[in-house]
Each structure stands twice: as structure tokens, then as C-alpha cells.
Amino acid sequence: LLAADDDNGGTSPIQTLLLAYGDLGVVNLYDPRVSTPSLAELQTYDVVVVWSNYVFFDPTAIGNVLADYVDAGGKVINLLFSMGTDGSQMGGRFMDQGYTALNGTSLITEISCLGTFEPTHPIMDGVTDVCDLYRGYGTALTADSTEVARWQDNELFVAV
């Protein structure tokens, strides 16, 4: 987990949730607020999850190394706050060259719940309802991406 979160205190709620599954192997936490991991560091993992609730140490470098990781066969899941164009999210090739499935212009702080979604998509397996206060605003699919779910207010929620 690349978790740039100013109140994580060395832990992450996402890490805790993932570790509860018990069959994922290792779920390590890296703080990209203080440095950018190298491609070699990332390649020891099958999947990198990016979470940001704080400014990345180097937004361009993190986006470039994630693009290199994908080019080398890795998989990246980027969550809310790691994408967008309001200035605090990652940049570089990951955001500029279509490595992300969706993007937005800013964040919205208004509760909305799950709207339309593709119930047969594996990402939505077991998900029937979810609501959140912090969400992407001005969202759009990037080239060659597929919509999986939208919020009730029609902003994109999940894309692959």
C-alpha cells in the first residue's frame, strides 16, 4: 500500500481490512509522503494500492514509477485522493498517459450512495450498497476504460 495519509501513524485502515482476509500474503505499508519507492521495491509485490489523503513527496515521480511498474507487468489500484487535478494527487505518466481508468477535477464532500453498477463484475461481488462523503467530482473515464459503478449523483465510482 502506498498510503500518503497524514494521520496513519504507521498503520492504515485499508491495510487492516486487507489483512483480515488472511490469504493475501504480505500487505506492507509505504509512506510516499516522505519518499518515492523505486521500481525494484514495487516489483516485489503483485499489486500496488495507492491511497492519498496528503501530498505525495514527488507527485510526478510516483506517477512515473507506477507507470513503469505497470509496463513491467504489475497491477495498480488507485483509490480516491490519489487521482484528480486539484494539485495534491499523483501526476507523471500514470495520470497523463491513460494508466488510470478514471480521473476527476476535484473532490466533493457530499454524501452519496451507490447508484448504477454492473452486478456481474468481480469487483462488485458482494457489494450491494455503499455510501461515502468524500468522492471524486468532475469524473470521467480515460481511454480504453470500462465503467463499473456510479454514485447516485452520477459521478463515477469504479472503473477498470
Low-confidence stretches: none
Number of strands: 9
Overall pLDDT score:
87
**How are the strands of the largest sheet arranged?**
6-5-8-9
Amount of beta strand: 25-35%
Distance N terminus to C terminus? 19 Å
Number of helices: 4
Topology:
Blueprint: E1 2-4, H1 13-19, H2 39-42, E2 47-52, H3 59-71, E3 75-78, H4 92-96, E4 102-103, E5 106-117, E6 131-137, E7 140-141, E8 147-151, E9 156-159
Parallel strand pairs: 1-2, 2-3
Antiparallel strand pairs: 4-7, 5-6, 5-8, 8-9
Give a verbal description of the structure:
The strands form three sheets. Strands 6-5-8-9 form a four-stranded antiparallel sheet, with no helix packed on it. A three-stranded parallel sheet has the order 1-2-3, covered by helices on one side. Strands 4-7 form a two-stranded antiparallel ribbon. Helices cover 18% and strands 28% of the residues. The protein has helices at 13-19, 39-42, 59-71, 92-96; strands at residues 2-4, 47-52, 75-78, 102-103, 106-117, 131-137, 140-141, 147-151, 156-159. The chain has 160 residues and is an alpha/beta fold. It has four helices and nine strands.
